[in-house]
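Appendix C. Worked example: Chromosome partitioning protein
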Amino acid sequence: MVKILAIANQKGGVGKTTTGINLAASLVAVGKRVLLVDLDPQGNTTMGSGVDKRGLQQTIYHVLLGEQPITEVRVVSTPGKYDLIPANQELAGTEVEMVNLEQRETRLKTALQPVKEEYDFILMDCPPSLNLLTLNGLCAAHSVVIPMQCEYFALEGLSDLVNTIRKVRLNFNPTLKIEGLLRTMFDPRNVLAKQVSDQLQQHFGNKVYRTVIPRNVRLAEAPGFGVPVLFHDKLSKGAQAYLALAKEIMGATA
Ligand code: ADP
Ligand code: MG
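Step 2, the predicted output written as structure tokens:
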């Protein structure tokens, strides 16, 4: 059975895209078949997966508008060995263009139907806002992975996301769960990070992944080469952390 995960947090720069790319590659490295869906008009997931967003004729945008089947848009086997549904700036128009379409919240869910059984995991990298694109991700997902940086306003932002998940559950996707909260760019020497991390565990208990992603320059460098960190520096702390996360997630879904 496929497991469909939305990677979401309306805050930008918390590590959603880094998690999408590197979790996808790590799941592949431990033998899983993975599809990564770029839902952000910035197209960072696309570029970081080694696909030039500027040269694309067909993207997730055309899939959401019903102009192309997902199989026409899919990039099979990127350098990280996962498949990709790419995005670029064109996707920024969907909010307006989808407004009058029927079932606009569940268009991604419907679009994924013909390919979902080809995969063990489908990961969706959501944009940094609680907009219609994120809503499509949440409606298509079984559960949500929430990357977060342990800083002062992190918990406050989290309550908006948790409320949105609750609303999606009520209106569209009754079984949507929080898969886990992922501490990213973590620096254990930072006292505030440690405090926020403790609070997180008090609030969310075992929903907080045991695996912590450290701040690691290799993770930040890898997108410049269009590869996941496993193909940039396999022994780096960042690569090892995402491999550990893949194993933790597999353990939880086995
Ligand atoms: P988001 O998708 O939530 O906006 P990104 O994954 O793009 O966040 O990360 C924001 C920036 O931080 C990027 O430049 C990325 O390379 C960098 N980054 C993300 N995670 C790490 C990490 N663990 N260590 C160092 N840099 C990181
Ligand atoms: Mg991003």
